[in-house]
């Protein structure tokens, strides 16, 4: 892991350190395991949001179907966990022992062929990346090579989200239907349900999240990152500079899909189940809102957006369950109209200049070099 | 190398080119040839199909019929980015630069290396790139604005930047759509100077309305009217052609 001044500029480095402090030190020390597990759940959406920063913020490709990839990743993980939970011993009361319970309820008597490889953890990990990646490749190729973009693309991704939900719900015997895959217990014999396992999974997830942040930051800083920005503004100019615009869009969409899938897989592990309610249109739109609130041009902003909106969601729906959807809608409208760059935009426009001024004045008084501890922790950084 | 007397091959050969939009023939059975190092200006009244001709050559619009051969390669079957890679560069009428990127980054994107997805991931900003970008920036009068975001540039500077982006591609055929339109008098003079410098060692196809400018640079002029060529030749010949005077210059 190389963190040089070149890889992160000063405010990005502050953002990285602030996020690391909050996720690795402050939250684990201040929250009980139940709340920490909730944070783990929120963070699974942060993966999706980081992908959307690349795909939507930088590349200008709005996908309203990221739930599809979140779901594919989540279902791949859940299938592995479900198979392990459905050992012959655990399911001896079923009419066909050794298959997942929902299959037995649906009169299926043998494990379907496409379930077989999910006995292997290696296959599962590969599938979490490759299945959504390939699916995004197919959708992306079909759409972008034909120059379908903008709103049309967004609508098609919505349709895909709806189709996948219907498919999962309809194929109850193979997918667990509307209830999803529940009662996931162990990972290679290691129980994922007790408190200490939740804590370990939380830290593993944070580790993966920072991995994804670094990958996204790397992509952002390469020429590919600049081509994405260029493409968003002047697609034709990029094309007539000798680039195949479709290929770059496909790449951005596939990366966003893979990030979303990693989030989905972590969701299945941390929350202990997976269901079609995280696949469809509404969750897909919510994922876009997290990104918009955090700031679609900021990788760190997207993580904060996912965390804060979900905290608000939990808080509000605990006290006023009916109001949440209205709140979410209002939030989205407010962000789009008033703060198009979200929290990170507010930070960069209003907070950062003040800190800079403060630091500059302190520096000139004492002559001491810039000190990082004056940055409020937990603050979203660009 | 040549055996016997072969005619000099044309750099660009457009033959029987037709494009029809819902039955309207914007370009109708058009044929013309551009030689190596030739500067050809296309003039004509509004709606004559001038921009459409450039669109057809660079692949932005697909031809209904006819052929466009560039160095013996059929361009009508290639995609836009492939046409660029064979050596055809195109400047649009309105300046199209990347406003959220700096002048340096704008030029760097046009640098002909790392044009695939993985090539651009592995692309390194090495000395060759920096040197070439600085060289071109100096040529387009933007040497001390390399770190400026393109949205801070004036209209004329954006035009120059786009010309610079083409220069860095080093195309064998450069197509310019009204390069001096909307420029101030001093910018116009500077642009003429710039164009005169960059058109050396390559063929150029220019659309322009400014007759003074056309006279300055054109080797040969093609006059389009309603999608067809009504006159072609030196500026002197075209200027005195009664048909041209009637439809275009007479106004």
Kindly list the characteristics that best describe this protein:
heterodimer, A: 382 residues, mainly alpha, 15 helices, disordered C terminus, B: 251 residues, Rossmann fold, 10 helices, 10 strands, globular, ABC_transp_permease (chain A), branched-chain amino acid transmembrane transporter activity (chain A), ABC_transptr_urea_perm_UrtC (chain A), membrane (chain A)
**CATH class call of chain B:** Alpha Beta
Radius of gyration of chain A: 22 Å
The domain tally of chain A reads 1
> Helix-strand pattern of chain A, N to C?
HHHHHHHEEHHHHHHHH
Kindly report how far apart the N and C termini of chain A lie.
20 Å
- Average pLDDT, all residues of chain B: 89
Class from secondary-structure proportions of chain A: mainly alpha
Tell me the total number of β-strands of chain B. Answer: 10
Rg estimate of chain B, integer Å? 19 Å
Query: So, the CATH homologous superfamily of chain B?
Result: P-loop containing nucleotide triphosphate hydrolases
Helicity range of the residues of chain A?
A: 55-70%
> What is the count of DSSP helices of chain B, taking H or I runs of 4+ residues?
10
Any overview of this molecule?
The complex is a heterodimer of chains A (382) and B (251). With 382 residues, chain A is an all-alpha fold. Chain A is built from 15 helices and two strands. Chain A has a two-stranded antiparallel sheet. Helices cover 37% and strands 24% of the residues of chain B. Chain B contains ten helices and ten strands. Chain B has a six-stranded mixed sheet, sandwiched between helices. In chain B, strands 2-1-4-5 form a four-stranded antiparallel sheet, with helices on one face. In chain B, a hairpin with a 2-residue loop joins strand 4 and strand 5. The longest helix of chain B is centred in the middle third of the chain and has 15 residues. At the A-B interface, helix 9, helix 10 and helix 11 of A face helix 2, helix 3, helix 4 and helix 6 of B.
């Amino acid at each position: 892991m190389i963190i040089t001044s070149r890889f992160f500029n000063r405010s990005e480095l502050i953002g990285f350190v602030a996020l690391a402090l909050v996720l690795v030190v402050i939250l684990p020390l201040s929250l009980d395991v139940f709340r920490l597990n909730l944070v783990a759940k929120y963070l699974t959406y942060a993966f999706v949001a980081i992908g959307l920063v690349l795909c939507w913020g930088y590349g200008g490709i709005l996908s309203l179907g990221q739930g599809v990839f979140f779901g594919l990743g989540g279902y791949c993980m859940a299938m592995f966990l479900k198979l392990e939970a459905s050992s012959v011993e655990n399911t001896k009361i079923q009419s066909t022992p050794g298959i997942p319970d929902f299959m037995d309820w649906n009169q299926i008597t043998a494990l379907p062929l496409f379930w077989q490889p999910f006995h292997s953890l290696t296959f599962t990990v590969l599938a979490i990346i490759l299945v959504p990646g390939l699916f995004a490749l197919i959708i992306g190729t079909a759409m972008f090579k034909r120059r379908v973009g903008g709103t049309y693309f967004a609508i098609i991704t919505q349709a895909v989200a709806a189709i996948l939900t219907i498919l999962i719900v309809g194929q109850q015997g193979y997918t667990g239907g509307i209830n999803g895959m529940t009662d996931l217990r162990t990972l290679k014999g290691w129980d994922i349900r007790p408190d200490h396992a939740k804590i370990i999974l939380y830290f593993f997830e944070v580790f993966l999240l920072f991995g994804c942040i670094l990958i996204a930051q790397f992509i952002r800083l390469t020429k590919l990152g600049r081509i994405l920005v260029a493409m968003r503004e002047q697609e034709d100019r990029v094309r007539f500079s000798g680039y195949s615009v479709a290929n770059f869009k496909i790449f951005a969409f596939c990366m966003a899909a893979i990030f979303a899938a990693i989030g989905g897989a972590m969701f299945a592990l941390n929350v202990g189940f997976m269901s079609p309610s995280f696949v469809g249109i509404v969750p897909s739109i919510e994922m876009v809102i997290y990104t918009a609130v955090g700031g679609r041009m900021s990788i760190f902003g997207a993580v904060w957006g996912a965390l804060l909106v979900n905290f608000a969601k939990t808080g509000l729906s605990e006290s006023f369950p009916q109001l949440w959807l209205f709140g979410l809608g209002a939030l989205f409208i407010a962000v789009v109209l008033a703060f198009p760059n979200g929290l990170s935009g507010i930070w960069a426009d209003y907070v950062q200049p003040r800190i800079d001024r403060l630091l500059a004045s302190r520096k000139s008084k004492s002559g001491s070099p810039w000190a990082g501890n004056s940055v409020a922790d937990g603050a979203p950084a660009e | 190398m040549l055996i016997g007397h072969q005619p000099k091959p044309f750099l660009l050969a457009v033959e029987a080119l037709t494009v029809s939009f819902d039955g309207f023939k914007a370009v109708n059975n058009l044929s013309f040839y551009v030689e190596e190092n030739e500067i050809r200006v296309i003039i004509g009244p509004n709606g004559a199909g001038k921009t459409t001709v450039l669109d057809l050559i660079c692949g932005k619009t697909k031809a209904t019929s006819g052929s466009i051969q560039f160095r013996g390669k059929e361009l009508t079957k290639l995609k836009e980015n492939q046409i660029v890679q064979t050596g055809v560069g195109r400047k649009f009428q309105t300046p199209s630069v990347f406003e959220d990127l700096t002048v340096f980054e704008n030029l760097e994107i046009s640098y002909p290396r790392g044009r695939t997805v993985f090539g651009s991931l592995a692309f390194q900003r090495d000395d060759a790139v920096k040197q070439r970008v600085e060289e071109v920036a100096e040529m387009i009068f933007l040497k001390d604005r390399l770190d400026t975001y393109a949205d801070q540039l004036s209209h004329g500077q954006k035009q120059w930047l786009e010309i610079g982006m083409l220069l860095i591609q080093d195309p064998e055929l450069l197509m310019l759509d009204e390069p001096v339109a909307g420029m101030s008098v001093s910018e116009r003079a500077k642009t003429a100077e710039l164009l005169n410098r960059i058109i050396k060692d390559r063929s150029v196809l220019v659309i322009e309305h400014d007759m003074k400018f056309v006279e300055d640079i054109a080797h040969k002029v093609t006059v389009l009217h309603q999608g067809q060529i009504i006159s072609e030749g030196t500026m002197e010949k075209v200027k005195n052609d009664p048909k041209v005077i009637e439809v275009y210059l007479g106004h």
